[in-house]
Amino acid sequence: MWGLELTIFSKMVENANESTKRGTPLWKALLLEHRLPFRYKEEVMIAKEKYNLLYIKHILNYVLFRFSNLLKSKKKEKQTIFVNIKGKFKCIFILLNYFKDYNILFYGNFDIKYYIGFGKLPRLIFSIKNLKVINEVPKKTEEMIYIYDEEGGYLNKEWKKIIKVSVDFSKYDKNNDSHRIVSFVVYPPLYKYKEIYNIKELRKNNRNIRLFFSGSIGNENYREKYMARFGKLSRMQIIDHINNELDKDKLLFIKNKKELKEAFNKNYLTRIIINDAYKIKIPVKRWLGSISKSDFLLCAPGVFMPICFNSIESMAVGTIPLTNYPDWFYPKLEDMKNCVAFNTKEDLIKKIDLILNMSNERIIEMRENVIKYYEDNLTAKSFFEKIELNNKSKITFFMPDENPVSPNK
């Protein structure tokens, strides 16, 4: 069953063991790659070049999943969904993670080439406990939910409910009761850490920063070449304008890790703090805790489309977004109610000044509105309520996936 993959794996390990003049031992590189002290970085890069370490990791993870997949069985008391998704959507994990308490039968010819080609973020679906990969369609499907993305397939069978997944918002009709939006939630790797399951406690954190930004700003992709088609200021336009036009006593650009650490321990209620994550990265496992220490988060656009994970992450922990894409939420965010919105460069500076001078009473009121919006529209519970209240036998889910059309256009 795994003959080819195991042969490749064993040969690569054998070759690695024969040549260890400079490289880190294979077992050490496999275990420590993502938690390496600085002294191992160069050695692991050499190990990767010599042994194609990343591919070895993929094979190892694939083999482990295939073994665990054999042992999985459906739980009779749970609803079952049958997933026939052909596209490798960046956000497919978000959708299927909503169904993590269901029996998920994922249909596909599951070989090593398919597994590796699935992509880093989509591949996270294979970490969902109740997901089982199968290569045959069940005979009895009357009580199952069918999820698909391409026409044809098994639509002729009898299903309890049929859900189509689409990333084409040009076909979205807000007046159609069978159309539903699957919102961006949080960056999928966050689900590997405990912070995401503790957001209610993070909302209670003492907030010693008034306005915070942390994101990559050294990457040319964040310039206006992608945002121009949406009529939005790009991330770099926003940061450059703040740097050039905001009074310097209202701005702190983080220069090193020591300054970033101090920022979370001192009071900065009259400044915006900007951290270039391209140079100084906040670890994923500490990201939510970090932004929960700020009243507001500057949520600048991503690369290919305006909406970005950080805006939803900020709302999850009760941090109010300062953003120029409130229309990319469904329903839209409302300026000065559950966000602070801006459109132009001049408006941006005015809104920053407004935030830096806002009363605690107004901030508390807006924070409560932000949390309510998140609970009503962005949680798994609210998602399922919308499905259960929908009596349609066929529903279309529209998912943001670096798609060039706003859900409110």
CATH domain class of the largest domain: Alpha Beta
Mean pLDDT: 80
Biggest beta sheet summary: 7 strands, parallel
Q: Provide the low-confidence segments as ranges.
A: 11-22, 26-44, 403-409
**Number of domain units:** 3
Task: Compute the separation of the termini in Å.
Answer: 49 Å
Q: Which strand order spans the largest sheet, edge to edge or round the barrel?
A: 3-2-1-4-5-13-6
Report the C-alpha radius of gyration, rounded: 23 Å
Number of helices: 15
Outline type: globular
Can you offer a commentary on this structure?
- The chain is α/β, with parallel strands linked by helices.
- The chain folds into three domains: 3-64, no CATH class; 72-183 and 388-398; 188-377, Rossmann fold, CATH 3.40.50.2000.
- The strands form two sheets. Strands 3-2-1-4-5-13-6 form a seven-stranded parallel beta sheet, with no helix packed on it. A six-stranded parallel beta sheet has the order 8-9-7-10-11-12.
- Helices cover 37% and strands 15% of the residues.
- The protein has 15 helices and 13 strands.
- It is globular and about 70 Å long.
